[in-house]
Design brief:
The protein has 457 residues and is α+β, with helices and mostly antiparallel strands. It folds into 3 domains: 4-103, Rossmann fold; 132-201, Dna Ligase, domain 1 (2-Layer Sandwich); 207-453, ATP-grasp fold, B domain (D-amino Acid Aminotransferase, Chain A, domain 1, 2-Layer Sandwich), CATH 3.30.470.20. It is built from 15 helices and 20 strands. Helix 4 packs antiparallel against helix 5 (107-114) and helix 12 (396-409) packs antiparallel against helix 13 (419-425). The relative contact order is 0.11. The structure holds adenosine-5'-diphosphate. Adenosine-5'-diphosphate is lined by residues 131, 156, 162-165, 168, 200, 202-203, 206, 208, 232, 235, 275, 277, 287-288, 438. Keywords: ATP-binding, Biotin, Fatty acid biosynthesis, Fatty acid metabolism, Ligase, Lipid biosynthesis, Lipid metabolism, Magnesium, Metal-binding, Nucleotide-binding.
């Protein structure tokens, strides 16, 4: 086992990793930018090192500062969390070259899965179903139009290096394609420095279903069931739950097997997520693989009883998985609400600020992952995730009720959040029945905000 792990991240995920390290009796080194000098992860780690100014490019994305900090403080491994450098193959390679274990898959695997067009091609060649579309990247708008004609409109143009819903455009008609192609490409260049695009058929009203997988260095690969992440705003997740109401046992088995096949095709090691879209007729298609821990991992931790950070660390240390597929159970239901410092009434505009008063929910089956505390400043420099409220109960109805009361207990004074919107969603009849798809929020946003105005809480 490792002696000391540097956590190349901040916020709730840095705190989350520190918790498991303490339980494993592994020391931790926190890193922080000058904007984060008073942050919670800094207080909780064994040791903390300032790695630069507020701007992420100069601190949390500064590879040499991170590697120097790790070496100077005697670390033997680095946990990247999510975001920042977690899916940067060069950083994974550099860690190895410096004699530090990167807690995640190899640089080569990250590289291959990070190019979504290449990942698609690999999956297809291994018999994992992918959305109908281009074989790989397209050469330009003419080829995209040819493919769109063949598979039929509407289609999605997607950036090979895309993420966070950026570099993606829906095209409904041939005459719109050239303009939307240029827009998607420009956004992809601006966000990812890579304008390569590929084409997928747009699956109408799909559900976003992802499978958590674990793979060790001995070649064992298991899946831990699914998370339904269909409640999204602007292609970004807001509420996640497991199990999904959309899966029969047979479908769950088939998708779980496809996820394991995908991980094996990639030569994967560590915790990872295989994302699918599920169509109304029960057909499902691989869309991408995330080669890191996900924000929504606590949902899976609740239903399986496993600590995914612990599994990641064990795998990186060369230990075998602590479970076999036949021992994994999905026990009860779990749900997560993301509490972002955003104003849903203003297009989810980020609205960071000072926490004037904080009260977090508790009680049986309630977990809150956050780095907030009374009087702290939610920094405008980084992402707007303020807290994750996660609940677990034997049935979905009890889970819903528990989440309602957890959100009623939550008090964050100082800035607007998505908590009220999440609370309203929990009363929406289709959501209660589990009948929703990725279009749910867009479709119901106006109605939900109307309820809010009428004081329905
Ligand atoms: P990103 O990496 O930018 O998050 P993804 O490929 O994971 O992009 O897609 C983000 C979301 O867009 C998915 O969760 C899903 O809701 C939607 N989506 C992606 N591909 C398709 C598709 N082919 N048809 C319909 N919806 C899709």
């Amino acid at each position: 086992m490792f002696h000391r792990i540097l956590i190349a991240n901040r916020g709730e995920i840095a705190v989350r990793v520190i918790r498991t390290c303490r339980e494993l009796e592994v020391e931790t080194v926190a890193v922080y930018s000058t904007a984060d000098a008073d942050a919670l992860h800094v207080k909780l780690a064994t040791e903390a090192v300032c790695i630069g100014p507020a701007k992420a490019a100069d601190s949390y994305l500064n590879m040499s500062a991170l590697l120097t900090a790790a070496l100077e403080t005697g670390c033997d491994a680095i946990h990247p969390g999510y975001g920042f450098l977690s899916e940067n193959p060069e950083f994974a390679d550099l860690c190895r070259q410096c004699g530090l274990k990167f807690i995640g898959p190899s640089g080569d695997v990250i590289r291959q899965m990070g190019n979504k067009a290449a990942a698609r091609a690999l999956m297809r060649s291994h018999g994992v179903p992918v959305v109908p579309g281009s074989e790989g990247p397209v050469s330009g708008p003419e080829e995209a139009a040819e493919i769109a004609e063949k598979i039929g409109y509407p289609v999605l143009l997607k950036a090979s290096s895309g993420g966070g819903g950026r570099g993606m455009r829906r095209v409904d008609a041939p005459e719109d394609l050239p303009g939307l192609y240029a827009a998607a490409q420009a956004e992809a260049v601006a966000c990812f420095g890579d304008g390569e695009l590929y084409v997928e058929k747009l699956i109408l009203h799909p559900r976003h279903i992802e499978f958590q997988i674990l793979a060790d260095s001995q070649g064992n690969v298991v899946h831990l069931g699914e998370r339904d992440c269909s409640i999204q705003r602007k292609n970004q997740k807001l509420i996640e739950e497991s199990p999904s109401r959309a899966l029969s046992d047979d479908l769950r088995r088939a998708m779980g097997e496809a996820a394991v096949k995908a991980a094996k095709a990639a030569g994967y090691q560590s915790a990872g997520t295989v994302e699918f879209v599920l169509a109304h007729d029960g057909s499902f298609y691989f869309i991408e693989m995330n080669t890191r821990i996900q924000v929504e991992h606590p949902v899976t931790e609740f239903v399986t009883g496993l600590d995914l950070i612990r599994e990641q660390i064990r795998i990186a240390a060369g230990l075998p998985l602590s479970v076999r597929q036949e021992d994994i159970r999905q026990d009860g239901c779990a749900m997560e609400c993301r509490i972002n410092a955003e104003d849903p009434r203003e297009g989810f505009r980020p609205a960071p600020g000072r926490v004037d008063f904080l009260h977090l929910p508790g009680g049986p089956g309630v977990r809150v992952d956050t780095a907030l505390f009374n009087g702290c400043e939610l920094s405008p420099w980084y992402d707007s995730l303020a807290a994750k409220v996660v609940v677990h109960a034997p049935t979905r109805l009890e889970t819903l009720r528990k989440m309602r009361r957890a959100l009623e207990e939550l008090i964050i004074e100082g800035f607007p959040t998505t908590a009220d919107l999440c609370h309203l969603i929990l009363y929406q009849p289709d959501f209660i029945k589990g009948r929703y798809d990725t279009g749910f929020l867009e479709q119901h946003m106006e109605e939900l905000l109307q309820w809010d105005c009428e004081g329905m809480k």
